[in-house]
Task: inverse folding
């Protein structure tokens, strides 16, 4: 049980290179921080613990950064102290250049927003004074002041729009950034020319105003997204970043990438085998649940090769590395997940189909008008076409859509869903098929004893005594089911046969617990007294409390529900019958690749799972949902993470997605009405800067109002 | 209306000053974490002497 408290590896040089920031700093992801008392407790370590120079907590992201004096204390002592206080510290690998870059961009974005707000506000005071008052003598001054204040906007604030526009053109797509960039630049050029000619159609106020609004709504969406615990931040879990290497009879932690074929390693109970490795010495039981979804532990004999990703269920095992993790099936899955994670982040900003159509129409109309009206009056043609582009700036998609998704993100958060990209809402609303994994998703991850007849107390004590030293999942299930009353009977001549069972003499009688699986349970065993059966026990992974209810609700809404499992036919079919699945919708004995293939046959489906064996399927799915307690690869490959044990989150996700998509459509409809009417006015030549300055905030106001009303509902 | 010739530069100066202050707070990382300080304040009775920045 010293696993959680063993941080000694942090003091080794090979790990310090990986984790330490600066000479004496380190960051930890700390689970269990929730309130101001936690902040106080942890931060006061810098006063209460010798050698700790400073501790800063970031509650929003569950991070802790500490600075120590290595002469007086060590990182391992600090980590142990944090663990003793009741938290779960996980050291984080030091920030790579990418993280720092990201943080710098986040700050720059905020500065841009500030500059845009300050400039837009000041330009507004000058232009409204011009529109409303008799300021003939100040007109030129105000116009030039507006020009000066618009310079930072066009030269600094709007730069991301230019970049986005160029990037989208390279990919031969229309994006929302394109009209922003065109409006900002052409509006600036046109207004400057008019300013020099002493005319009064100058659009600096409307341009800076809408750029500010768009930046603000994008910022709100991004902040909302960033406020979630990002799974990738917490995934630097120890489980797969280090291994116990055995040298000259002693073991020592080494970073995972130091392992080479031929190295001897030690694995403790509950730990994952970090490489394809050959078992030495004694037999051992490994659970392949993370790979295959099958619950039964398998027995490996000395000399057998244990695949990476297998988990030792009991005792200790000594192994010789045969293949490094990167070359194993497990490692390859992890690698694919890693790669997909990167490409997924890049696709967030691509625009919707509707928005693209609207854009094409607005730009098409402007160009057509320009060509058609050119013979009548070239100046008027340019003026009106520009007014159209500036006014019909697709506000709703640039402004209404991020706002709608920001409100959906915050509602999802309140329901305990971590949604990693707004795109998940769109896909979840469109999906009509939902795939569920069995083990760990619909069922609990541990085995439970299915009790039919009450078991007499003396038998309970006998079983507990026989299983007392076993770390097999069955033993844990017995311990959970039977209360201990008094000291356990003494077992003589105890023996354990791998894959068979345990036996021994108790008070002169010979007792045996032997495996006897039947078709209705995942695992069964029988207790024999002097070779005569006296009791039968059956075990299954219990259904999560609300699985049935959630499935029924989803079926009620017309969703096609399918069950995927790596497990064998009998236990899967038994469960499927309980959950009233159509046998045609149940797939058993699936490998990770089979699952991924099957899911990819149904484009846009939702995949709900928890293990490494589900991660490839989640990448293929329209939306990957990983359940609470899932492993890192599953978290990384999923778009949505359920923080509570309940599967109800799947239902909530669909509900929130549908309502947020309806809101997006509503905002688009509002902007369509606005665009059409403003476009007609612009083409008729009825739009002057005053009208534009009024129309712009009115349309934005409508979108704000519609978003607000919807998100209250 | 000549007063405007003083007021406008003043207002721009004032606005610019605030903008500069804002940019400084962002650059120095004061707005990176908006959650914890609110909690820290509540429990921080014995540590008046310590500065808020590292």
Result:
């Amino acid at each position: 049980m010293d696993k959680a408290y063993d941080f000694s590896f942090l003091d080794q040089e090979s790990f310090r290179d990986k984790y330490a920031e600066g000479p004496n700093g380190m960051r930890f992801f700390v689970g269990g921080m929730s309130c101001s008392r936690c902040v106080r407790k942890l931060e006061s370590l810098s006063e209460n613990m010798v050698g700790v120079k400073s501790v800063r907590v970031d509650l929003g992201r569950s991070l802790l950064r500490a600075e120590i004096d290595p002469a007086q204390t060590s990182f391992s002592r600090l980590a142990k102290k944090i663990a003793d206080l009741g938290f779960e510290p996980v050291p984080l690998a030091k920030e790579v250049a990418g993280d720092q870059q990201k943080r710098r961009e986040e700050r720059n974005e905020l500065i841009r927003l500030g500059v845009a707000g300050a400039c837009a506000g000041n330009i507004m005071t000058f232009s409204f004074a011009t529109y409303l008052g008799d300021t003939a003598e100040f007109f030129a001054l105000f116009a030039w002041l507006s020009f000066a204040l618009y310079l930072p906007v066009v030269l600094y604030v709007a730069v991301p729009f230019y970049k986005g526009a160029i990037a989208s053109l390279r990919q031969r797509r229309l994006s929302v950034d394109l009209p922003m960039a065109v409006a900002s630049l052409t509006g600036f050029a046109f207004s400057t020319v008019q300013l020099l000619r002493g005319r009064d159609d100058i659009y600096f106020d409307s341009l800076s105003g809408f750029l500010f609004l768009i930046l603000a709504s994008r910022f709100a969406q991004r902040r909302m997204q960033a406020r979630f615990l990002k799974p990738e931040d917490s995934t630097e879990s120890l489980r797969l970043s280090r291994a116990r290497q055995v040298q000259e009879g002693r073991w020592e932690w080494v970073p995972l990438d130091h392992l080479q074929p031929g190295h001897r390693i030690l694995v403790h109970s509950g730990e994952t085998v970090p490489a394809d490795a050959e078992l030495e010495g004694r037999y051992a039981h490994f659970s392949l649940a993370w790979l295959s979804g099958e619950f039964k532990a398998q027995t490996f004999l000395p000399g057998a090769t244990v695949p990476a990703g297998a988990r030792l269920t009991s005792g200790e095992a000594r192994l010789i590395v045969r293949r490094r993790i990167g070359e194993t099936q497990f490692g390859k899955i992890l690698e694919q997940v890693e790669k997909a994670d990167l490409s997924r982040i890049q696709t967030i900003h691509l625009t919707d189909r509707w928005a693209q159509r609207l854009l094409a129409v607005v730009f098409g109309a402007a160009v057509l008008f320009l060509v058609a009206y050119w013979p009548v009056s070239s100046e008027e043609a340019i003026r009106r076409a520009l007014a159209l582009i500036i006014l019909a700036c697709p506000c709703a998609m640039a402004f209404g859509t991020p706002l709608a998704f920001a409100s959906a993100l915050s509602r999802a958060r309140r329901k305990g869903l971590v949604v990693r990209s707004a795109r998940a809402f769109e896909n979840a609303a469109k999906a009509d098929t939902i795939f569920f994994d069995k083990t760990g998703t619909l069922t609990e991850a541990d085995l439970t004893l299915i009790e039919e007849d009450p078991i007499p107390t003396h038998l309970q004590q006998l079983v507990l005594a026989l299983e007392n030293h076993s770390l097999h999942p069955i033993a844990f299930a017995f311990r959970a089911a039977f209360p201990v009353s008094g000291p356990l009977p003494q077992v003589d001549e105890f023996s354990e046969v791998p894959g068979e069972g345990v036996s021994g003499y108790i008070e002169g009688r010979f007792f045996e617990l032997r495996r006897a699986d039947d078709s209705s349970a995942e695992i069964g065993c029988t207790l024999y007294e002097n070779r005569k059966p006296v009791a039968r026990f059956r075990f299954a992974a219990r259904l999560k409390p609300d699985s049935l209810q959630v499935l029924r609700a989803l079926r009620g809404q017309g969703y096609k529900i399918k069950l995927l499992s790596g497990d064998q036919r009998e236990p899967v079919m038994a469960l499927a019958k309980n959950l009233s699945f159509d046998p045609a919708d149940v797939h058993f004995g699936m490998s990770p690749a089979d699952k991924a293939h099957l899911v990819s046959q149904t484009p846009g489906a939702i995949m709900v799972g928890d293990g490494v064996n589900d991660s490839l399927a989640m990448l293929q799915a329209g939306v990957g949902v990983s359940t609470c307690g899932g492993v890192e690869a599953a978290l990384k490959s999923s778009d949505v993470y359920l923080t509570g044990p309940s599967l109800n989150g799947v239902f909530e996700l669909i509900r929130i997605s549908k309502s947020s998509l309806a809101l997006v459509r509503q905002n688009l409809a509002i902007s369509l009405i606005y665009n059409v009417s403003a476009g007609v006015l612009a083409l008729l030549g009825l739009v002057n800067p005053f009208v534009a300055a009024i129309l712009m905030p009115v349309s934005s106001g409508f979108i704000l109002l519609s978003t607000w009303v919807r998100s209250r509902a | 209306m000549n007063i405007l010739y003083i007021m406008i530069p003043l207002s721009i100066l004032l606005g610019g000053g605030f903008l500069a202050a804002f940019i400084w707070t962002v650059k120095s990382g004061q707005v990176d974490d908006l959650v914890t300080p609110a909690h820290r304040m509540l429990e921080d009775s014995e540590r008046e002497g310590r500065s808020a920045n590292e």
Remarks:
- Chain B has two helices and no strands.
